[in-house]
Amino acid sequence: MSLLSVRNLVIDYAKTRALDGADLEVAQGETVGLVGESGSGKSTLGSAVGRLLSRAAQRTDGEVVVAGEPVFDLPPDRLRHLRKRHLGFVFQDPIASLDPTMRVGAQLRLVLGRGGDVGFHLARVRLDDPRVTRAYPHQLSGGMAQRVAIAMAMATSPELLVADEPTAALDSQVREEVSNMVFSLAADAGTSILWLSHDLPAVARRCDRVAVMYGGRVVESGPAREVLGRP
Ligand code: ADP
Ligand code: ADP
């Protein structure tokens, strides 16, 4: 059974049909790269997974099923539980996933709950430093803030991590390091990854499978070699 099933998903903004019957499956433990040009619908599909769409978006048809749960039909408490227990999200701008008013240590502690080890989770992204724990998000570099966001997203060992261009704003060296961290943390935890990117070669190097979006649909999907057209 798939961990994530997106079936015939149609999502409209006021003047744009962003998803036009998108289908996608992600299996347990699988890493899938979702690629496509800007505007093809990647972000809309990624946020639909957690029903994190902007207010302007309307689901017109189709469904999203995560771990057997139909996310658009869940009552608020079940949806909150699903997001908390089964899903992790990271975005291009790490500040979007962090609380600007809370120190790093405090917000990580909040996610972990009682008995959680903040130092352990920061060490996993190589940030176990009292200065980081005490810092506010805006005091960190982009790469450091993204590593904190990754530590937060992975702290609960989610079944699926949705990563929407999390390295796009980083320098190329930091980009590699951060990507490596995400894939190795996910492998350790058995977490599936849906990695959104317009960088097909980078995705092809890391993901088990690549799905290509065009015009709000997934038009092709398969092992990276096949999608890249290499024998
Ligand atoms: P991608 O992530 O591949 O760049 P998006 O999902 O961001 O694609 O966008 C798909 C389409 O939906 C684009 O035409 C985009 O302009 C439009 N769109 C995205 N977000 C909004 C929004 N909040 N309001 C209106 N249109 C939007
Ligand atoms: P990306 O392709 O990296 O996701 P975008 O520039 O497409 O980035 O979108 C950045 C933000 O702007 C997203 O939150 C998206 O929902 C919003 N957005 C994108 N297109 C539109 C649009 N046509 N109208 C309003 N908001 C949009």
From TrEMBL:
GO terms for biological process: peptide transport. The keyword ATP-binding applies. One of its GO terms (molecular function) is ABC-type nickel transporter activity. GO terms for cellular component: plasma membrane. Its main location: membrane. It is a peripheral membrane protein. Residues 4-231 form the ABC transporter domain. Transmembrane segments: none annotated. It is found in: Cell membrane. The keyword Membrane applies. Keywords: ATP-binding, Cell membrane, Ion transport, Membrane, Nickel, Nickel transport, Nucleotide-binding, Translocase, Transport. Its EC number is 7.2.2.11. It catalyses: Ni(2+)(out) + ATP + H2O = Ni(2+)(in) + ADP + phosphate + H(+). Belongs to the ABC transporter superfamily. The complex is composed of two ATP-binding proteins (NikD and NikE), two transmembrane proteins (NikB and NikC) and a solute-binding protein (NikA). This is Nickel import system ATP-binding protein NikD.
